[in-house]
Every structure is written in structure tokens, then in C-alpha cells.
Design a protein that fits this description.
Elements: H1 3-18, H2 24-40, H3 45-59, H4 62-65, H5 70-85, E1 101-107, H6 113-126, E2 131-136, H7 141-154, E3 157-160, H8 168-184, E4 189-194, H9 202-215, E5 219-225, H10 230-242, E6 247-251, H11 260-269, E7 273-277, E8 285-287, H12 290-297, H13 303-313, H14 316-327, H15 333-345, H16 349-355, H17 359-365, H18 371-383, H19 387-391, H20 398-408, H21 412-433, H22 435-446
Parallel strand pairs: 1-4, 1-5, 2-3, 2-4, 5-6, 6-7
Antiparallel strand pairs: 7-8
Bound molecules: guanosine-5'-diphosphate.
Keywords: Cytoplasm, GTP-binding, Hydrolase, Nucleotide-binding, Ribonucleoprotein, RNA-binding, Signal recognition particle
Domain SRP54-type proteins GTP-binding: 272-285
Family: Belongs to the GTP-binding SRP family. SRP54 subfamily.
Length: 448
């Protein structure tokens, strides 16, 4: 996510942080590089100009230049301005005190609108809300089928009335029917998956305006493909001018190295980004936090999001139980396997690294290696053991190792390596949780 941009920013800022004395000249040079990095990221040129001017002015201000750590202060200024550019505060969703809350989703075909309807429905369902999805594109049965299939996967109701050649009036009526059903049947949230086209056209806009006027949604969310950069921004501007939106969901952000849309769509349209789509799966939806995104871009990581994700994935009891076992001698290969499976749920290693400070560099260092594949081998090896072996690794002698290697399509060396890794993980955990271990760790960290 925004890797190319992030790498450039890290380099520029490292240079600034490194210089003991900051002069107007080296700030000016850095600003030139910042300007170039943002333009290469496909950020709207006017936004870039404003940004660089503001940062430049603040950076040569008294507060920064006379501080003890001017380099760091400049980084803070850049962080502040990036955050402001993306909207400052996190933008919440307007939930109605008189349910159902009606969310109208709009966007061009292929942007990921229907998938995002599913993701959003899942998001609300996880909060304990009852959600109704409405297929509001009656002319395209395929769109209805896709929504129905998402509904089945998520166990969420879908309201659907296909009608070939439906007029605008028909579409409006179908949406009204859906919202009425939401009200009558006590749903908390109704999500309308409206029709999309390949291009912005008058007919589509007319239909969306009519639906909006009839159902008076609490939110009109535009779904836009981040990979299309400035095209996404221009499209969002057109939708906002014609229909009026309350927020934006950018999709495919995980594959967007440049970040032009993420950085400038808010500043150009005036509408906040509310969520990011970061993958094809239904759980790949993140609330958008401008401050955390600014940190990610500057290579400071996004530990807060990682912690939140971990909290969603593990319960406190699970974590405490795991720690107890890990530090006693009862931690077995079976537990090791269970932990790997849970860590896997957090996301791919690549995604996790992307959220850690300096993770970008680690990722570079691992280039070419495929940790996921390694993880799968480890799991395959453990799965090829008998239950008794998993509970007591000391049983695993030479002939058993051969059998395990055959069963998992690996070799004895790999089985040996896994057992060694398991033992050192257990030893390390014990060391870290003991009082003297913690002291050692603290010394180690301080000495770096
Ligand atoms: P619609 O035509 O706007 O309704 O788009 P769809 O929901 O059918 O999505 C189009 C394609 O984009 C599908 O292949 C989706 O799986 C994919 N897609 C949607 N959101 C994301 C995302 O956040 N990341 C990635 N990688 N793919 C996505």
C-alpha cells in the first residue's frame, strides 16, 4: 500500500533528520524532492503546490529552526500536513437514531461497488446490526446474482426484484420497496447497491438523483478504484457535483503503490474517505484514519491498526492462555500449530510488515522469499505428525522423522529445522517473560 511513495518520503526525511543544522537551503531542497515525490504519486498538482508551500513556510518558521531537533520537527510538520490533506480527523458513518440507516452506494462498474456492499454489510453485522442488502440494478441480473451470492456467504438478507428494461421510475420504486422492507422488518441498516456504468453518463446520474430524492439516504458513499489515481479523483468530483455524496470508499488500495487518489481525493472533492478496500476478501475493509495513513506513508508504521486487528482476531482469554502455556513446559507442537493458524488470520506477513515501523525495509530485505509458503510447509509438517508426536516432540526419532517428511512432501532436514525452531521459540518466550529475561531484553533495547 503506497509503498513507492512511502519509500521516497522515508529517504527524504532521513536526510533531514540526519542534518544537525537545518538551513533554509536544505529545507528548500527537501521540498523540491517532496514535490517531485507527490507528483510522481499522481497527486493533483494544485494540491501538491499548496502542500509544499505550507510545509516549507512552517519548516523555516522560528519554532522549528530554533528547536533542539529541527530535523524531527520538520518531519512532524510534514506529518501534520499530510494528515490535514487527507481530512484530519477520522470520518465516522452517520447512523440514524431512527433505524434503518439507509446507505446508498454509487460508483462506476468494476470499481468494486458490489463487493464493497458485502464488506460493509459484514462490517455492520459484526457490530451486531441487522443488515438488508438491496439489489438496485434490476436490469442486470448478473449484478443481482453477485449480491445474492455475497448475501448467502455472509448470511445477510438480500432484497431483489429483477426487471429487464426497468425504467427510472421502476428503479426508484424498487429502492423504496427495499427501504420499506427494511423498516417493516426491523433492519438496522439498509445498503442500496445501485447500478453502475462504464462511464459517467446523464442517464445514470439522473437515476441516482431520483433514487436519492426518493429514499433520502443517510449516507451516499462513492466507491472508487484507487489504482486509477487522478481518474478516480475526477470521477469523484463529477459524482459529487451531480449527485452529492457524503463520503468515499477507495478500493484496491493494497495494490496502489503511488497513492494519488488516497492523498488528494479529499482535498479535491471536499468529501472524506471513510473506508479503504484492501483486498478481494470480504474482511478486507479498513476504517480510514488520516493520521495513521500519514504515519504509514512516512514509514512510521501503523501499530494502532495492527493492535486493533489483533484484538479482533484473538480474545484476551486466548492470548492469556497461550502465554501461560508458552512459558510453561506444556507448550507443544500442537499449540505452536494453533498459534500459527491464528497469526495467519491477521493477514499476510506482507500486510503485517507494512503496518510496522520500518517494516518496509524488512520487506525489502526479504525480497524473493515467500514466508507464506514457508508457513504452509511448517503446517504441513506438523499435520503429518501423529497426535502423540505433536504433544510430545521427544518421541520423534529418526524413523518417525522420515515418515513425517514423506507425509508432508518435505525432507528430514526440514523436519529437524522445524523442531529446532519450535524449541527455540519456547526458550525465547520463557526468557522474555522471566524477570531476568526482561532485564536482558531491556538492556538489549537500550544499547541499540
Ligand atoms: P462493481 O462492478 O463496482 O460492482 O465491482 P465488483 O464488486 O464486481 O468488483 C470488481 C472487481 O474488483 C472484483 O474482481 C473484485 O473482487 C475486485 N475488488 C473489489 N474491491 C477490491 C479491493 O479492495 N482489492 C482488490 N484487490 N480487488 C477488489
Amino acid at each position: 500500500m503506497l509503498d513507492a511513495l512511502s519509500e521516497k518520503f522515508e529517504k527524504i526525511l532521513k536526510k533531514l533528520r540526519g542534518s544537525g543544522v537545518l538551513t533554509e537551503q536544505n529545507i528548500a531542497e527537501a521540498m523540491k524532492e517532496v514535490r517531485l515525490a507527490l507528483l510522481e504519486a499522481d497527486v493533483n498538482f494544485k494540491i501538491v503546490k499548496d502542500f509544499v508551500e505550507r510545509v516549507g513556510k512552517k519548516a523555516v518558521g522560528q519554532e522549528v529552526m530554533q528547536s533542539l531537533t529541527p530535523g524531527h520537527q520538520v518531519v512532524k510538520v510534514v506529518w501534520d500536513e499530510l494528515r490535514a490533506m487527507m481530512g484530519g480527523e477520522k470520518a465516522g458513518l452517520a447512523l440514524s437514531s431512527a433505524p434503518p440507516t439507509v446507505v446508498m452506494m454509487v460508483g462506476l462498474q468494476g470499481a468494486g461497488k458490489t463487493t464493497t456492499c458485502g464488506k460493509l454489510a459484514r462490517f455492520f453485522k459484526q457490530q451486531g446490526r441487522r443488515v438488508l442488502l438491496v439489489a438496485a440494478d434490476p436490469r442486470r441480473p448478473a449484478a443481482g446474482d453477485q449480491l445474492a451470492s455475497l448475501g448467502r456467504d455472509l448470511q445477510i438478507d438480500v432484497h431483489r426484484q429483477d426487471q429487464a428494461g426497468a425504467s427510472q421510475t421502476d428503479v426508484v420504486r424498487i429502492c423504496q420497496d427495499g427501504v420499506r422492507r427494511g423498516t417493516d422488518q426491523g433492519f438496522d441498516v439498509v445498503v442500496l447497491d445501485t447500478g453502475g456504468r462504464l462511464h459517467v453518463d446523464d442517464e445514470l446520474m439522473g437515476e441516482l438523483v431520483a433514487v436519492k430524492a426518493a429514499v433520502k439516504p443517510h449516507e451516499v458513499l462513492l466507491v472508487a478504484d484507487a489504482m486509477t489515481g487522478q481518474d478516480a479523483v475526477n470521477m469523484a468530483t463529477q459524482f459529487h457535483e451531480r449527485v452529492g455524496v457524503t463520503g468515499i470508499i477507495l478500493t484496491k488500495v493494497e495494490g496502489d503503490a503511488r497513492g494519488g487518489a488516497v492523498l488528494s481525493i479529499r482535498a479535491v472533492t471536499g468529501q472524506p474517505i471513510k473506508f479503504l478496500g484492501v483486498g478481494e476478501k470480504l474482511d478486507a475493509l479498513e476504517l480510514f484514519h488520516p493520521d495513521r495513513m500519514a504515519s504509514r506513508i512516512l514509514g512510521m508504521g501503523d501499530v494502532l491498526s495492527l493492535i486493533e486487528k489483533a484484538q479482533e482476531t484473538f480474545t484476551r482469554e486466548q492470548a492469556e492462555e497461550a502465554q501461560k502455556r508458552l512459558t510453561s513446559n506444556t507448550f507443544t507442537l500442537e499449540d505452536f500449530r494453533a498459534q500459527l493458524a491464528q497469526v495467519n488470520k491477521l493477514g499476510s506477513l506482507d500486510q503485517i510488515l507494512g503496518m510496522l515501523p520500518g517494516g518496509q525495509k524488512l520487506r525489502g530485505a526479504m525480497e524473493g522469499q515467500v514466508p507464506e509458503r514457508e508457513m504452509k510447509r511448517v503446517v504441513a509438517i506438523i499435520d503429518s505428525m501423529t497426535r502423540r508426536e505433536r504433544r510430545d516432540h521427544t518421541l520423534i526419532n529418526g524413523s518417525r522423522k522420515k515418515r513425517i517428511a514423506r507425509g508432508s512432501g518435505t525432507n528430514v532436514m526440514e523436519v529437524n529445522r522445524l523442531i529446532k525452531q519450535f524449541l527455540s521459540a519456547r526458550k525465547l518466550a520463557k526468557m522474555l517473560t522471566g524477570a531476568s529475561g526482561r532485564r536482558q531484553l531491556a538492556q538489549l533495547l537500550n544499547s541499540r
